User: Fold this.
Amino acid sequence: TGGASFRPQNEFPNFAQTGDVEIVINAEGQEKRYMLHRLILAQCSGFFEASTSEDWSRAQAQGTTSTVGPQSSGLAKIGEDDEYGREAGRPTLPIAPPRDRYRWRYELDWGNKDDELPMLVQKPATSSLFGGDPTYRPPATPNKSTTTGSNGFFRSFTAMQSAAHIPHQAPDNDLIRDYDNLFRVFYNYPPNLDPLNIAESYIQCKSLLNLADIYDALEVVGPRIDHHLLQFQSRLWKQIAKYPPSYLKLGYLARSRVIFSEALIHVVGQWPAGSNQLRNHVPEAVFDLIEDKAEELAERQLKTEGKLFRLTLTTPRGERVSPTNSYLDWLALSLFRQWVIENTSPPPPLPPKTPNANQPSPRTQQQNKPSISPGHLYRLLYSAGPAYLPHDELKRFLKTSKAFGAESSGNPEYRRDELKKFERRMDE
Assistant:
């Protein structure tokens, strides 16, 4: 149990033995440290691939060589001539193998302005994660009791472990949570996202995707977001129908074919209602796709409305109905066409107001009636006649016909038979 038998942690988020990239996230006094691998970070993020490349690292080393002097924790200036950063002619010292030191260090920079986004900035690696010179660590002495230095090590290790379990608090801890989820995805761990509340989960997913977009890691993070949201199943479809522009942007960032397609259907059906939410927020190609689909839908809708208006009934001899050969069938056809016109055409302009008009006219009351959306209209037509023209409305319409009222005034049976026939023809 002594210090000699202790093995440093070598698992996420602190690969103390094999990690070569230290990342420090600070937010309002909270701190989270990571010791990760350059290989994995570069594979998952274009930002880390570029900033840890050989050319970038050489430029960073040239810019920091003059700043590392005798007062630093190192024993000499860091040069480029030697494999481990030692100058030629320097005395040979016990050097830890390359796996015991890191080469890159990143800290979260909040910028100088309030509207700037915090970004990871590469800093010179002047100290080890455990303190002291990163290029030198004396080997552990066997059977040696714990000393003051080892106590300091355990205190720092305990502090690092406590920083790994930061409670979720708004707003700054959300940033720490997003970075933690980003690195968890890089190492194939599931991100810590709300599994129950879909509204809260959407906010967390959107924030994580925006962070992944900054570091060019959408290809890696997107599938994780897609998998997480699809677990909500029917609740996800309801949310997409309620907020289609928001989920269209999220589906595009997450590279989710399912979420993007479902949101696109609702956006096109409501277009141009959501244009202001999408303009300048999605690529121009996506905006053009929505406009093209909306135009195609409008053309198809016009063709369908024309076919509905040209629907007709025929007599048993195959003739089109007219007032002369089948007056009742012609009334049913006229009522259907009038219903289609009223629900597919914009309402006429309101009449000018008069000083003496204290009560609204029947025409004004009819215009204030909520209109039927195209989607609801076609669903009603698919459901059959009673869904959009119920029995009572057909009965009132027939009562307004003088011929029907005159012939059936003294014969109730005739009235019922004609009404049933009228309903059957309306269904046709």
In short: The longest helix spans residues 284-309. Residues 65-100, 127-172, 363-370, 408-414 have pLDDT under 50 and may be disordered. Strands lie at 10-11, 14-15, 21-27, 30-36, 104-109, 119-123. The radius of gyration is 37 Å.
